[in-house]
UniProtKB/TrEMBL annotation:
Key word Electron transport present: no
Listed name of the protein: CS domain-containing protein
Taxonomic classification: Eukaryota, Sar, Alveolata, Dinophyceae, Suessiales
InterPro entries: DNA_brk_join_enz (IPR011010), Integrase-like_cat_sf (IPR013762)
The organism's place on the tree of life at top rank: Eukaryota
MF GO annotations: DNA binding
Length: 1244
C-alpha cells in the first residue's frame, strides 16, 4: 500500500484539472492493493490478481455494471482524459453495485454491449465532469493540500477553523469594519417578545446554581499589554468594547470573577489589489457561557441545504436569486448593558483606552456575541425581513416546515438573506434583471436602520447564486457543491490517499467536508462506512497509523464521486406511484396513477335515476343530499334512496350520513319549495307536511307527525306557510266588478282590535277562524322556540295579512336576527302583482327575495269576477302556490347560508372522522390511544379533502415539498399538547386513497435479511418496469416491421415477462348484452350490424371472422329451414373454408328480412346448447382450451354483475329490440343443431 501511495504522491506533485486527476486515478487504481483495486483490474479486462477473494458469478443484466471497455470505445473521440475520467467514476458505481457489503470481486467482468440507458448514464457523468472542468477550477498539488489537511480544523459545516494566534493590533484593526459600521442597533429593537424579555434580564438566562461548573473554566487573552491596549482603543471607537469595572464582574459560586479570553485567527483580505494577512478577532466566551442556559431563539428556523435540493422547476423555468449579506451581523447589534458584567475579558486596560481617567484599570467587555448569538441573530434578521420589510412569512424555507408552495422563497441564514424567484424564461427577460419588490423593501429597511450590507456580495436577479454553501444554477436547474469546493474536496481526498500515516484529525477533516458535499446528493452517503470506525479507533489511541485498505477505498470513492455531488432540479415527477413490500417469504409491488373516487360514492350514470332507472336526461335531476354521486328523477326517488327503513333499489352508501335537513310545513299539494331545496343538493328534505298528504294538524296522527318532524335533530331550517285566507284585510270591503257593479265582499272576520276574530261570528265561521289562528300560532311559536344558533325559521304570509299584527310577530321583530323580505310574485314569474312577506331569521333571504318591483308587461289583472251562479272568483287565489323562481331563490338563499355555516362539510368531516376513528381503534396501540386517535383522525380527514381525482400531480408535488429537511423521506405529524410538553405523533399516509393495481407478487429464491429483501423488492419492481417498457418497444417494432408478434416469444424478455404476467381472459358476452347491443344497432338504423351481432353470437364467430363476413357468405336453405354461414378462412382451419349451419328460426327469419326483405321476422331467442355442441361450434383447435374457456367463462359470468346504469341500458335497449319487430312471433326454443364441416352444407 505504501508503495502505491508513494506513486500516487508523485503523480499528484503538481496542479491538475479535476478530469486529469480522475484520469490519473483510473490509471493507478488497477495497481491498488485493495478490493477496489482488484475490482478495477477485473473491470479493465485483466482479471483479478491471484489471491484476491473473487467469484465467477457476476450479475450483469442490470443498468450496472457498465462495461468499461465499451465506454472507452463509446468515448473514443473525446480523448483519453475524458474517457478515463468517466471510466473512473463509472468504475466506482459498478463497484458499489456489485461488490458493496461482503460480495466478492468478480473474477472476470463479462463483456456486454452498451444499452441505451447505459449510454445515458455515461453522457450524464461526462456532462457532470465537463461542468466541473469548464469552471476552470484546478486541484491543488499534494503538498499544498497536505498542509491544509493537517492544519485546518473544521466546523460542522466543513468550514475550516484555524489555529488561534496572538493578537496583533494592526492586523486585527485591518479586518474590522469601519467606524460607525458596528454596534449600530440595539438587538432588543428587533426581537420577538419572548426573546427580548430574556435579553433584558440576564439573570433569567443563568443556569440554576447547582448546574454551575465547579471550577470556572479559564480562557486567556492572547496579547501583550501594549497590543491589547491598542486593540481596545480601536474596539471602543467602533463600539465593539465597553469598560467594565472590576467590582461589577460576574463571580462564580466561590466568588471568583468569571472572565473571558480573546485571540485571533488569520484571515486574508484583498486591500488595494494586494492580498494581505489580517486577523479575525475571536472572543472566547467559554467561561461565561458555562453559566448560562441557551435562549430558545430562532436557530430552530435555520434552513438546511438538503431541503433546497427539493426545489423544482419545469424545463422552461428559471430560478432567480436576489441576495444580501450583512458585513458582520454578529457585530451589528448591541445587547443590553446588563450583560456587560458577564462579557468581560480577563485582561485589564487603563481606563484611558475608553477615554476615562488614566491610571484606573478596567476590564474591556464585549457587548455582543455569546452562547445564544446564533439564536438571537437569526431572530433579529427574521424580524428585519418579515416584520420590517413585510416579506411574507409563508415563503420562508426552514427545516421546521415543508418547502413553501410558491415560486417565491425566502432563505435566511444568520447574516444572509436570499430570495428565490421561479419564473418562466420569457418572463425573466421581460423583467430586465430588476430586483424584486421584497428585496427592494429589505434594502430600504437596512438603509433606514443604518445596517451596512456587503455590496460586493449582492446579487440581483441572478441565475447563479450561492445558497447555503451550494451553488444554485437557476438556468440549468442544478443545485450542487460549488466547483471550487469540489476541486478542494478532490484535492483533500487525493492528498489523504497519498499519506501513509493518517491521524484522526485528517480523517475528520475530510469526512466533514465530504458529508457536506454529499448533502447535495444523498445516496452518496452510502459510500462511507469504514471511515467512522477508523476515526473512533484513531481517537482512542490518539496516534497516526496506516489506514485500512477498505478505508482507503472509501476515500478514493469519495474522490471519484465529487463531480456528481449535485441535484437536478428539473428532474420530472413520475406518472406512477409505486409501493413495494417484502416479507421473509416473498415480495410484491403495486402501482397507481390516480386516486380512487371519493369514499362511499356510487359510480352511476347521471342521466338515469339511480332509484327507479328511468331516463332523466331531459329533466331536472335531484342529487343525493349526502353527495354519494347518485342522481334521481324525483324527490320520492331521493327519499327511497335515503330511507334507512325502506328497501331501496339504489341504496345510498352514505345512508348513515346526516346532511342538514329542511322541512316545509303547509306546503300545498305540490310542495314546490321542498323540490327546489332538494334540487340544490347537500340538504336533505323532510317529507312536506300538508293536509294534501293526509297530514292534518288537527288530528292526533297529524300532530304527532308534525312533532316528529320538528324534533328531528338534523333539522336546520323550516319554512311555514299557514293558511292566509281568513287574514285578509280586504275582507268586508265592497268589490267593484268588471261591469262596474259594486257588491258586498265576503264578511270580515277580524280587525285590529279583534285580531283573533270577532266574538260575534257565526259558529261555523268561528271554528274556521280558530283553526287558521292555530296554524299561524303554531308557526309563530315555533319561530320563537326554534331560534338557536345556525337553525333557521321562516314564515310567509301576504304582505297585508293581519298576522303581522300578532304580538308574537311584534316580539320577534324586536330580535336582531329577524327581518322581513318583502316582494311581489310578479318579480318571480308570477302572473299577477301580489305582495308577500317572508319573515324569519335566515340572513341571506332578503338579498334573494326583497326586490323592488320594476313593473312588468302583460300581467293578469286581480279583478274579481262573478260567475253565473253568483259566486265570486278571486284571481289571486290562483296564485296560492309559490312561483317556481321564488322557490329556487329561497333554496339558493338557504344553500348559501348553510355553506357559510359549513354545515355540510362539518357533517362530512364528522362522518369521515368516525370512520377513521373506527379504523384506528383496530390499529397499533400507539395510534389506538384516545387523544392520539382523535388528533390523527382529524388530520387524516383534512388530508383526505385534498386527495381528489385529477389533483394527483399537485398532491405528489406537495409530497415532494414535504420531504424532511434532509430531502429523503416524507413524514406526517400531528402535534399534541400534553400538559406542557408538545408531543409529535406520526400520522399514517392515506395510501388507501390511491387506486392501486397489483402488478407483482413473487416468492424469494434465497433467504436474506429483511432490510435487504425490502430493497430487493424495490429493485425487482424497477426491473419489471423497465422490462415492460422494453417489451412494449420490441412488440411495437415487430408491428412496424410487419413481423409476427410471436417473435417476441423468442426473447429472454418475453419469458421473464410471462413469468410474472397473469393472463386474464375476456368475459364472454351474455345474451342479454347482445340483445341490448342489437337494440342499439336497430335504433341507430344499423340493421345489418344488428344481424351480424346475432349471427356472431349464434355461430361463435371471432371478431375478425365477423368483420370479413358479407351477404354473400350467408346462404339460405330452401323452405326457410336454415341458413349456412360460410367462413372463408379461419384461425383454426389452416386456410380451409368452414361452414356453419344456423337453424334458429327467428334468426333465419331476421337474416332473410334484412338480406332479402320479403317478410316479417320474429324475436331472436338464445338456443340452449350442450357444451359439446358449443365446442364444435366454436371451432377451437384444442378441445382442452375450449373446455377451459367455457368453464371459466361460465364461472365468470356467474360472478359478473352489472352496475346499475349498465343494467339499465342493457334493459332499455333489449326492450327496444322487442318493440322493433312488426309481427312479434315470440318463438319457442328449439335445440340448435349445427353441422360443421368443410363440404357438406356448402352446397345448400
Ligand atoms: Zn326515479
Ligand atoms: Zn346517496
Ligand atoms: Zn314585479
Amino acid at each position: 500500500m505504501s508503495l502505491w501511495m508513494a506513486r500516487w504522491r508523485r503523480c499528484r506533485s503538481h496542479e491538475q484539472s479535476p478530469s486529469k486527476v480522475l484520469a490519473e486515478l483510473w490509471r493507478h487504481l488497477r495497481s491498488l492493493p485493495s478490493k477496489l483495486g482488484h475490482f478495477s483490474l477485473a473491470s479493465a479486462g485483466d482479471g483479478v490478481p491471484p489471491g484476491a477473494e473473487s467469484s465467477v458469478r457476476v450479475r450483469s443484466d442490470d443498468l450496472l455494471p457498465i462495461d468499461l471497455r465499451e465506454v472507452a470505445t463509446y468515448l473514443l473521440d473525446e480523448g483519453s482524459t475524458v474517457a478515463n475520467s468517466v471510466a473512473c467514476v463509472l468504475n466506482t458505481l459498478n463497484y458499489l453495485a456489485l461488490c458493496s457489503g461482503h460480495a466478492p470481486v468478480p473474477t472476470v467482468m463479462p463483456e456486454r454491449p452498451l444499452t441505451n440507458p447505459q449510454k445515458q448514464v455515461i453522457d450524464h457523468v461526462r456532462q457532470a465532469l465537463s461542468h466541473l472542468e469548464n469552471s476552470g477550477e484546478q486541484v491543488a498539488p499534494f503538498a499544498r493540500m497536505a498542509d491544509e489537511l493537517r492544519e485546518a480544523k473544521f466546523d460542522y459545516a466543513g468550514e475550516p477553523i484555524l489555529m488561534m494566534e496572538d493578537l496583533d493590533a494592526e492586523q486585527v484593526i485591518a479586518a474590522w469594519s469601519a467606524v460607525g459600521q458596528a454596534a449600530v442597533q440595539e438587538a432588543t429593537a428587533f426581537l420577538p417578545d419572548h426573546i427580548r424579555d430574556k435579553l433584558n434580564d440576564p439573570r433569567s438566562c443563568l443556569l440554576p446554581l447547582h448546574e454551575w461548573p465547579s471550577r470556572t473554566p479559564v480562557s486567556k487573552v492572547r496579547a501583550s499589554d501594549e497590543e491589547w491596549h491598542k486593540v481596545v482603543v480601536a474596539a471602543h471607537e467602533r463600539g465593539l468594547m465597553v469598560p467594565l469595572d472590576p467590582e461589577d464582574v460576574f463571580k462564580d459560586a466561590s466568588g471568583v470573577p468569571v472572565l473571558n479570553g480573546a485571540g485571533a485567527v488569520p484571515k486574508f483580505k484583498t486591500i488595494g489589489g494586494q492580498k494581505r494577512k489580517c486577523q479575525r478577532f475571536i472572543s472566547n466566551l467559554i467561561p461565561s457561557n458555562a453559566f448560562q442556559a441557551r435562549i430558545d431563539g430562532d436557530d430552530k428556523y435555520l434552513p438546511y441545504l438538503g431541503q433546497l435540493t427539493l426545489l423544482e422547476q419545469e424545463s422552461d423555468q428559471v430560478w432567480l436569486t436576489d441576495s444580501e449579506d450583512f458585513t458582520s451581523s454578529f457585530n451589528l447589534f448591541k445587547i443590553p448593558a446588563a450583560w456587560h458584567n458577564l462579557m468581560g475579558f480577563g485582561k485589564l486596560v487603563d481606563a484611558s483606552a475608553f477615554g476615562g481617567p488614566a491610571g484606573r484599570k478596567v476590564y474591556p467587555a464585549i457587548p455582543m456575541g455569546w452562547l445564544s448569538s446564533v439564536a438571537v441573530v437569526q431572530a433579529i434578521v427574521r424580524s428585519l425581513v418579515f416584520d420590517h420589510a413585510a416579506v411574507l412569512r409563508l415563503t420562508e424555507v426552514t427545516k421546521m416546515r415543508a418547502l413553501p408552495d410558491s415560486g417565491d422563497l425566502t432563505v435566511i441564514y444568520l447574516d444572509s438573506f436570499d430570495e428565490l424567484r421561479r419564473l418562466e424564461k420569457g418572463c425573466k427577460e421581460a423583467l430586465d434583471e430588476s430586483m424584486s419588490d421584497r428585496h427592494a423593501r429589505f434594502l430600504q429597511v437596512c438603509r433606514e436602520k443604518g445596517l451596512p450590507l456587503n455590496e460586493s456580495k449582492r446579487l440581483v436577479a441572478s441565475t447563479r447564486g450561492t445558497l447555503q454553501g451550494g451553488l444554485l444554477d437557476g438556468d440549468l436547474g442544478r443545485y450542487g457543491l460549488s466547483p471550487d469546493k469540489m476541486a478542494n474536496l478532490m484535492g483533500l481526498a487525493s492528498s489523504l490517499a497519498g499519506h501513509e500515516q493518517w491521524s484522526e484529525f485528517m480523517l475528520r477533516h475530510l469526512v466533514g467536508k465530504a458529508t457536506f458535499g454529499m448533502c447535495f446528493r444523498r445516496p452518496i452517503f452510502s459510500v462511507l462506512q469504514g471511515v467512522f470506525s477508523e476515526i473512533q479507533c484513531r481517537a482512542a489511541f490518539n496516534d497516526m497509523a496506516a489506514p485500512a485498505a477498505t478505508v482507503v477505498d472509501e476515500v478514493l470513492m469519495v474522490l471519484c464521486l465529487v463531480p456528481v455531488m449535485f441535484t437536478s432540479l428539473k428532474a420530472a415527477l413520475d406518472d406512477e406511484v409505486a409501493v413495494t413490500d417484502a416479507s421473509p417469504s416473498g415480495g410484491g409491488a403495486a402501482v397507481a396513477t390516480r386516486f380512487k373516487p371519493p369514499p362511499l360514492t356510487v359510480d352511476s350514470d347521471p342521466r338515469v335515476c339511480h332509484e327507479c332507472g328511468s331516463d332523466c336526461s331531459n329533466r331536472a335531476r335531484y342529487p343525493c343530499p349526502a353527495e354519494c354521486g347518485a342522481m334521481f328523477c324525483s324527490l320520492a326517488c331521493v327519499m327511497g334512496h335515503r330511507d334507512v327503513d325502506r328497501p331501496a333499489a339504489g341504496e345510498c352508501p352514505r345512508r348513515a350520513w346526516r346532511p342538514p335537513r329542511f322541512g316545509e310545513r303547509f306546503s300545498g299539494p305540490r310542495a314546490p319549495l321542498s323540490h327546489a331545496v332538494a334540487l340544490e343538493g347537500r340538504i336533505e328534505v323532510q317529507p312536506p307536511f300538508d293536509l294534501h298528504f293526509g297530514l292534518d294538524m288537527f288530528t292526533d296522527h297529524g300532530r304527532s307527525e308534525l312533532q316528529r318532524l320538528m324534533d328531528d335533530e338534523d333539522l336546520v331550517a323550516e319554512h311555514w306557510a299557514p293558511e292566509c285566507k281568513l287574514f285578509s284585510r280586504a275582507r268586508g270591503r265592497p268589490i267593484t266588478l268588471e261591469d262596474g257593479r259594486t257588491i258586498q265582499g265576503p264578511q270580515p272576520v277580524r280587525d285590529g282590535r279583534h285580531l283573533m276574530g270577532f266574538p260575534w261570528l257565526p259558529h261555523e265561521t268561528r271554528a274556521r277562524v280558530r283553526q287558521s289562528n292555530n296554524m299561524v300560532l303554531k308557526a309563530l311559536k315555533r319561530g320563537k322556540d326554534v331560534n338557536r344558533p345556525n337553525r333557521y325559521w321562516t314564515v310567509e304570509h301576504p304582505y297585508r295579512s293581519w298576522m303581522w299584527d300578532f304580538t308574537l310577530v311584534k316580539e320577534l321583530e324586536q330580535e336582531p336576527d329577524f327581518s322581513h323580505a318583502v316582494g311581489s310574485l310578479c318579480c318571480f314569474g308570477g302572473q299577477r302583482e301580489k305582495w308577500f312577506s317572508f319573515f324569519g331569521d335566515l340572513p341571506t333571504l332578503p338579498q334573494h327575495l326583497a326586490i323592488d318591483c320594476p313593473g312588468h308587461q302583460g300581467l293578469l289583472s286581480c279583478q274579481v269576477t262573478q260567475r253565473a251562479d253568483g259566486t265570486l272568483v278571486y284571481p289571486t287565489e290562483e296564485e296560492a302556490e309559490y312561483p317556481w323562481r321564488l322557490c329556487t331563490e329561497y333554496a339558493a338563499a338557504l344553500t348559501e347560508q348553510l355553506n357559510l355555516d359549513g354545515r355540510f362539510d362539518a357533517m362530512v368531516s364528522a362522518e369521515r372522522e368516525r370512520y377513521y376513528l373506527d379504523e384506528l381503534a383496530q390499529s397499533t396501540g400507539r395510534l389506538a390511544a384516545t387523544p392520539v386517535k382523535e388528533a390523527v383522525a382529524a388530520t387524516l380527514v383534512k388530508e383526505e379533502a385534498h386527495l381528489c381525482q385529477t389533483e394527483e400531480r399537485a398532491h405528489l408535488r406537495a409530497l415532494l415539498r414535504a420531504a424532511t429537511y434532509r430531502g429523503t423521506d416524507v413524514r406526517f405529524f400531528v402535534e399534541l399538547d400534553t400538559e406542557d410538553q408538545p408531543e409529535l405523533h406520526e400520522v399514517p399516509y392515506l395510501a388507501l386513497r390511491w387506486d392501486w393495481k397489483t402488478i407483482l407478487a413473487f416468492p424469494w429464491k434465497e433467504d436474506g435479511h429483511i432490510n435487504e429483501l425490502e430493497l430487493n423488492a424495490v429493485a425487482v419492481y424497477l426491473k419489471r418496469r423497465s422490462l415492460d417498457k422494453q417489451l412494449a418497444e420490441f412488440i411495437d417494432l415487430l408491428y412496424q416491421e410487419g413481423e409476427p408478434i410471436s417473435y417476441a416469444g423468442s426473447s429472454q424478455y418475453f419469458r421473464n415477462w410471462q413469468r410474472c404476467y397473469v393472463p386474464s381472459r375476456a368475459l364472454p358476452a351474455s345474451w342479454d348484452l347482445v340483445e341490448g347491443l342489437m337494440g342499439l344497432a336497430f335504433h341507430n338504423g344499423q340493421r345489418s350490424f344488428g344481424l351480424l351481432l346475432a349471427l356472431g353470437f349464434n355461430c361463435l364467430l371471432r371478431t375478425s371472422e365477423m368483420l370479413s363476413l358479407t351477404h354473400k357468405h350467408v346462404v339460405f336453405h330452401p323452405r326457410r329451414n336454415g341458413l349456412s354461414v360460410v367462413i372463408p378462412g379461419s384461425k383454426t382451419s389452416q386456410g380451409n373454408p368452414q361452414v356453419l349451419l344456423v337453424t334458429d328460426r327467428q334468426l333465419v327469419q331476421l337474416a332473410k328480412d334484412i338480406i332479402c326483405p320479403t317478410s316479417g321476422w320474429g324475436y331472436v331467442v338464445l338456443s340452449v346448447v350442450t357444451v359439446d355442441a358449443t365446442v364444435t361450434r366454436g371451432r377451437w383447435s384444442c378441445n382442452k382450451t375450449a373446455r377451459q374457456y367455457i368453464d371459466e367463462g361460465t364461472a365468470q359470468l356467474a360472478h359478473a354483475s352489472w352496475s346499475a346504469p349498465q343494467r339499465h341500458s342493457v334493459r332499455t335497449w333489449s326492450r327496444f329490440l322487442l318493440r322493433v319487430p312488426r309481427e312479434a312471433t315470440v318463438a319457442t326454443q328449439a335445440p340448435a343443431n349445427c353441422a360443421v364441416g368443410s363440404h357438406d352444407s356448402f352446397l345448400g
